[in-house]
């Protein structure tokens, strides 16, 4: 049956799957690259795979209301696992595949998972390491059999065995699953996704079928998505963005989901697939641009001149052409020449030659970077959202795309700004509750359905566009009473390819200071081009030339901040370049790479003290976690530098 026969406020993902198998039967639903070869499954084949797995899980005792955890990288079989769990009335709970055992233990114990489907031996070993903490865990199912020959005992079994049992159950098994599907309604739980835990333990966000399917429908119609589109599924399956793009929108529209072979081959796989619909965080687009600029440094002078000439032209007229605004005939002609010589070859190299709609979110993206992609003719837009909203709170309509806002309210969403400046929203996608946490639910969502985002912002008069300033809890006051908005400053610093991460301090203090993480790829390539030897990240970060470059970036940001009367007090007076990358394994970042500000301030309190006591250097010892889970420590003596600041009153005058 067509979408008009399945309203967005009813049904479930298994129902959408059955619809898609009828409506798009022979169209490709999933692709996965394995051993260098793309494997494909149609919607009919996907239905058969999911139903066989669902029957097998039902036979093992998976019941409505149970929780089934899914751990691994983006693979069709793991997406099928979530739908199979739903077909049994159970709740899928995807986990971050790079989470360490202790992080997994909390989530698995908190949700009370009876079943776990893990991708490979590595993930199985993590679960086995914590199994005695999980008395409710009964079945551990693995997908990849490599290294698993001696694991077939104690409730551990292969994914293929469960599917085979489901097929062997025949019509009786399928009938039992179909009865459950037929009884599902819009308010049944669809998925439980855990927050990144920026300020504490992650919270389990309960989202219903109504939340996800209604949001998927509205956002798909907003951008004209259709069954002929395709996406590359490479972001963590535990993140709500991947769930809405690779599950919600894919099942509503019937488009194809492509899974890369690995994180290392992702860029090559992106070029091969050429998705028409693409999402990436700003850091990805910044990294792509950095790689382009690095390659251009090695090109001939003629190519460099041609590249700069046409890229300057695209930055000036490309966005206007993309938005259908008036552009002179000569500029259009020049743009066509640039498209043939530079823009189309570059888009092909980036893997975005077929991209009709691209989105970025999670952090602010630099205006220059944003305009670079739009200048090429890539319809890159920004959205603002969160797990509790089923992603979409705001989107940018075509023709109203700007770098300095996150767009207007998404269809069906209401937005209001509280007196404190915090952004609140109400929408059909608003979450049901935080699992086992009624106090947090009540403090986040009121009786009228308004949800607190935790972000400070304002709605621009006239356009209705939302501007986000910072996290509400991070916005503070300097000692003189001026506004302190660290995230705003950090995002400005991260616009530079050499800066991977920045953490700004200053709340309640007279001046702002900063920690800087360099981007190893960008700075390493600079060092190689200039024949500068280095043996480690720590040595590269401490080079005088690197410090000088970072100082230039900070002082440029200071000049920009001085022109903003509200934020001029946030200029960075002193800084240091950290001797290690901030790492999720060390608890300094969340799994979605959000800074855990309080953790960093406590862990590096000696460095913060040195930034404010006038020291020119500081020696420190830092505990680190290696990939295999072992602990170690690294010692370093870090230089502290002053950065020039600008008199805001003189600028205003």
Structure keywords:
29 strands; alpha/beta; 22 helices; disordered N terminus; GMP Synthetase, Chain A, domain 3; 3 domains; Rossmann fold; five-stranded parallel sheet; five-stranded mixed sheet; 40% helix; 653 residues
Question: What would you note in describing this structure?
Answer:
Helix 1 packs antiparallel against helix 2 (43-60) and helix 2 (43-60) crosses helix 6 (159-168). The protein has 3 domains: 3-211 and 222-261, Rossmann fold; 282-471, 3-Layer(aba) Sandwich (Rossmann fold), CATH 3.40.50; 476-652, ANL, C-terminal domain (GMP Synthetase, Chain A, domain 3, 2-Layer Sandwich). Residues 1-10 have low confidence and may be disordered. It is built from 22 helices and 29 strands. A hairpin with a 4-residue loop joins strand 17 and strand 18. With 653 residues, it is an alpha/beta fold. It is globular. A 5-stranded parallel sheet has the order 4-3-5-6-7, sandwiched between helices.
């Amino acid at each position: 049956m067509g979408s008009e026969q399945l309203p967005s406020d009813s049904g479930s993902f298994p129902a959408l799957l059955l619809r898609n198998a009828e409506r798009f039967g022979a169209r490709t639903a999933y692709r996965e690259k394995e051993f260098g070869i793309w494997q494909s499954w149609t919607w009919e084949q996907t239905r058969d795979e999911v139903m066989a797995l669902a029957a097998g899980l039902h036979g093992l005792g998976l019941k409505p209301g149970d929780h089934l955890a899914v751990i691994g990288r983006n693979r069709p079989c793991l997406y099928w696992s979530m739908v199979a769990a739903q077909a049994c009335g159970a709740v899928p709970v995807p986990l971050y595949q790079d989470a360490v055992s202790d992080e997994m233990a909390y989530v698995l114990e908190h949700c009370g998972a009876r079943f776990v489907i893990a991708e490979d031996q590595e993930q199985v070993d993590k679960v086995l390491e914590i199994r005695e903490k999980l008395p409710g865990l009964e079945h551990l199912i693995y997908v990849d059999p490599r290294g698993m020959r001696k694991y077939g005992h104690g409730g551990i079994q292969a994914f293929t065995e469960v599917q085979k049992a489901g097929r062997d159950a025949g019509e009786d098994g399928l009938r039992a699953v179909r009865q459950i599907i037929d009884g599902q309604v819009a308010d049944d739980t669809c998925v439980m996704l855990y927050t990144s835990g920026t300020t504490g333990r992650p919270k389990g966000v309960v989202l219903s079928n109504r939340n996800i399917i209604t949001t998927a429908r509205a956002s798909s119609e907003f951008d004209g998505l259709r069954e002929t589109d395709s996406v590359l599924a490479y972001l963590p399956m535990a993140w709500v963005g991947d769930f809405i793009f690779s599950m919600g929108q894919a099942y509503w529209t019937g488009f194809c989901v492509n899974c890369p072979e690995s994180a290392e081959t992702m860029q090559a796989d992106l070029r091969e697939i050429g998705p028409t619909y693409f999402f990436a965080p700003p850091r990805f687009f910044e990294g792509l641009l950095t790689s382009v600029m690095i390659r251009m440094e090695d090109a001939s002078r003629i190519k460099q001149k041609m590249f700069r000439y046409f890229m300057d032209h695209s930055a000036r007229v490309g966005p206007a052409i993309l938005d259908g605004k008036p552009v002179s005939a000569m500029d259009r002609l020049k743009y066509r020449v640039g498209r043939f010589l530079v823009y189309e070859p570059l888009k092909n190299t980036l893997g975005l030659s077929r991209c009709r709609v691209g989105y970025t979110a999670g952090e602010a993206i630099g205006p220059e970077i944003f305009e670079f992609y739009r200048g090429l003719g890539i319809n890159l837009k920004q959205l603002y959202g969160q797990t509790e909203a089923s992603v979409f709170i705001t989107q940018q309509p075509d023709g109203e795309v700007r770098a300095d806002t996150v767009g207007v309210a998404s269809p069906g969403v209401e937005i209001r700004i509280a007196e404190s400046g915090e952004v609140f929203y109400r929408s059909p996608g608003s979450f049901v509750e935080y699992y086992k946490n009624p106090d947090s639910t009540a403090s986040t969502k009121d009786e009228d359905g308004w949800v607190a985002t935790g972000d400070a912002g304002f709605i621009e008069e006239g356009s209705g566009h939302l501007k986000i300033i910072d996290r509400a809890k991070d916005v503070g006051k300097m000692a003189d009473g001026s506004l302190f908005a660290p995230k705003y400053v950090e995002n400005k610093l991260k616009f530079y390819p050499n800066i991977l991460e920045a953490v700004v301090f200053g709340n309640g203090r007279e001046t702002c200071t900063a920690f800087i993480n360099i981007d190893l790829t960008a700075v390493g390539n600079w060092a190689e081009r200039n024949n500068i030897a280095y043996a480690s990240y720590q040595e590269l970060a401490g080079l005088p030339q690197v410090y000088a470059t970072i100082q230039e970036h900070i002082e440029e940001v200071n000049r920009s901040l001085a022109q903003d009367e509200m934020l001029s007090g946030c200029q960075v007076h002193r800084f240091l370049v950290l001797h290690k990358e901030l790492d999720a394994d060390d608890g300094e970042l969340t799994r979605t790479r959000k800074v855990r500000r309080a953790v960093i301030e406590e862990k590096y309190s000696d460095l913060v003290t040195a930034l404010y006591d006038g020291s020119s250097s500081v020696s420190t010892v830092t505990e680190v976690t290696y990939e295999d889970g072992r602990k170690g420590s690294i010692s370093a003596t870090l230089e502290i530098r002053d950065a020039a600041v600008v008199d805001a009153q003189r600028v205003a005058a």
